[in-house]
Write a structure and sequence with these properties.
- With 138 residues, the protein is mainly beta.
- It has strands at 3-7, 16-20, 25-28, 31-32, 43-48, 55-61, 64-75, 80-85, 92-95, 101-104, 107-108, 119-125, 131-136.
- The strands form three sheets. Strands 9-8-7-12-13-10-11 form a seven-stranded mixed sheet, with no helix packed on it.
- Strand 8 (80-85) and strand 9 form a beta hairpin.
- It is elongated.
């Protein structure tokens, strides 16, 4: 269906409200998506008609936050990982799914391979707290 997408220009200035319809090609993280899949805070590149403001193509990526810390809990049943930040502050609980890229040293790993006390670098979607990258032994 039709809808709108409000985009804040990277260099500042007035927001642009784009019209999105069934002809608009939308991708999020490289995969085909719908307008409903886009999240507030996503980084967006849009190609649109400057007169009608109808979007032809929209490519979006989640805003990624990087966190260095220590694993304080692993819950394989719930698919979550709790990290104590190395710089201090409250623990961060991330959701881990089948698309999360996990490495332990130089080898691919799963959530079950991670252990309390492991030091890691995590990259996650700030809006959803979905882990995108988990690298143990960096």
């Amino acid at each position: 269906g039709a809808g709108t997408l409000t985009v804040t220009p990277k260099g500042g200035g007035t927001n642009v409200v784009l019209t999105v319809d069934s002809t608009t090609v939308i991708k999020r993280s490289g995969a085909t998506a719908s307008l409903a899949d886009l999240k507030v805070g996503d980084l967006v590149e849009a190609k649109y008609n400057p007169v009608t403001l109808l979007a032809a193509n929209i490519s979006a990526w989640p805003k990624i936050v990087w966190l260095w810390g220590t694993i304080s809990a692993v819950d394989t049943g719930a698919g979550t990982l709790t990290i104590t930040p190395g710089h201090g502050g409250a623990d961060v609980v991330l959701t881990v799914d089948s698309h999360t890229y996990i490495k332990r040293g130089h080898h691919s790993a799963t959530l079950a391979d991670l252990q309390v006390g492991d030091h890691l670098l995590a990259g996650y979607d700030q809006g959803s707290l979905l882990a995108l990258w988990l690298i143990v032994g960096y």
